[in-house]
Design brief:
By secondary structure, the chain is mostly helical. It has five helices and two strands, in the order αααββαα. The chain has a domain of 60 residues: Arc Repressor Mutant, subunit A (Orthogonal Bundle), CATH 1.10.10.10. The protein is 39% helix and 8% strand. β1 and β2 form a beta hairpin. The relative contact order is 0.14.
């Protein structure tokens, strides 16, 4: 299970996704027990029903996590839903004049 989470990182997986991708039964108590053991050792974390490998898990595998994808927040803040950033507008629509769409 740990290797499966590492393979799909930085994505998180639900229990059913993890069990299926790792080749475990989704209806087995022993499968849940195996996951609980990984969580107890702090190799896996579960947040809002999403599972992810922890830094301790990466160390146990002898690997480093992949780089985290860049987001709008990494570039100075998220853009509010329904709004456009001037710097992104041209990049998203290079052939469209957006000057009338934006406030001066």
């Amino acid at each position: 299970m740990l290797a499966t989470l590492a393979h799909y990182a930085p994505l998180t997986l639900t229990r059913v996704q993890l069990y299926t991708l790792a080749g475990y039964s989704t209806n087995s108590g022993s499968t849940d027990g195996n996951l609980q053991a990984l969580k107890k050792e702090e190799l896996v974390q579960e947040t809002a029903k999403q599972l992810a490998i922890t830094p301790t898990g990466w160390t146990r595998l002898g690997r480093t996590p992949p780089p985290v994808p860049l987001t709008a927040a990494a570039h100075g803040g998220a853009v509010a839903p329904g709004t456009r950033s001037r710097s992104l507008a041209g990049a998203e629509h290079p052939n469209r004049d957006l000057s009338g769409d934006l406030d001066p």
